[in-house]
Amino acid sequence: MHVMRPLLLLLFSRNNLLALTVMLLLLSPCVALSITPARASFDFVPDSEQTFSVALSSPGSTSIIVSLDGDLAEYVQVSESAFVFSGERVLTGTLQLPADLAPGSHTAQVTLREDLASTGGGGADLAVATLSVFELRIFVPSADPYLEGSLRITGSGDRKVASVPIINRGNAAAYQVVVTLS
Question: Residue 122 contacts by C-beta under 8 Å, 6 or more apart in sequence?
């Protein structure tokens, strides 16, 4: 009772909404869903089929709904769109690449969302749904030079090092590349 009194006083103070939220989160059951790997990358081969698998892990019984997003979503099929599991499980799928895609980077996201309605997490209780995303990446090379760059800053304190790695994703050579930082 001595431990609960400060919590009750905090609950009914000016910051009661914050205290109530924290208490409900601490008291709510939470099941973590982990996926491995987080992404897979494939080279573009016209009219080819790529297979993938995602290892799922959850300490408790979890009901999952699978959805697909991204510009490649229409080319992705998964083995199951909804299922219940506990422990470990593998979700498999295929990516049926079309004959032609525009040059550049293309993605599809396989989203795994906990179905709270099936696991009893709805109603008056505070429930937080677990959401995990597996990403499929396809890069289609360009016939011309296609340069991708990023700015990386490393170091600590007053000593910083800036670098700009540039990758030519095209099928033609790129000469005299100039990077301007402003």
Answer: 116
